[in-house]
């Protein structure tokens, strides 16, 4: 018993004679530097991408970590809405004839007769920049096309909602592959569709019954953002001031 007690007292004396925290300070600084470097490298090497909901306009920043080998959502969220339209009234007369001009930066459609004179016009909403449910860009095809098919009030989508289909597209008028102009109850002040050109149901009905002829009527689609003239800018600014004061 005395031998064990003597050994314990000796060991305690040796430990007390060492400089305070000498070993542990070195160990702590070693691990601290190690994890700091690892944390910095982790942030330098990791990749990220935005995953957006096309209906709420809410985007999640999703990271890929080389240490976890998996994508994971970051706690922060960022709202990335589509740009709102800069409304500009279509011209009353153009050089082209028998054509529907669709401008997806101004959010307008305009129908011109055989003399190039404006017959009717209205608001539209086209394909947004990115659709997360199909995981790709979904802007409307641009260029000049001819309407190759049109259907009545019972027209429905075969694809959307994804995996189900059946979304109403009354008075659809197909002009390129699966792209169509059609009536909709949701025509916001920005591009929100999967690629089709949405318009009010009454506008689609009018075009369908009074203007569009399959095989001959042309549709010109553009995202061109034509800036208004100086006079139009002044009128626009005056309108904005009146709106704010109301």
Automatic annotation (TrEMBL):
One of its GO terms (biological process) is cell wall organization. Residues 1-22 form the signal peptide. GO terms for molecular function: peptidoglycan L,D-transpeptidase activity; transferase activity. Keywords: Cell shape, Cell wall biogenesis/degradation, Peptidoglycan synthesis, Signal, Transferase. It holds the Pfam family YkuD. PROSITE patterns: LD_TPASE. Residues 98-222 form the L,D-TPase catalytic domain. GO terms for cellular component: extracellular region. Gene3D superfamilies: L,D-transpeptidase catalytic domain-like. The keyword Nucleotidyltransferase does not apply. The active site is at 182 (proton donor/acceptor), 196 (nucleophile). Pathway: Cell wall biogenesis; peptidoglycan biosynthesis. InterPro entries: LD-transpeptidase, LD_TPept_cat_dom, Transpep_catalytic_dom. Belongs to the YkuD family. This is L,D-transpeptidase. It comes from Candidatus Berkiella aquae. The lineage of its organism: Bacteria, Pseudomonadati, Pseudomonadota, Gammaproteobacteria, Candidatus Berkiellales.
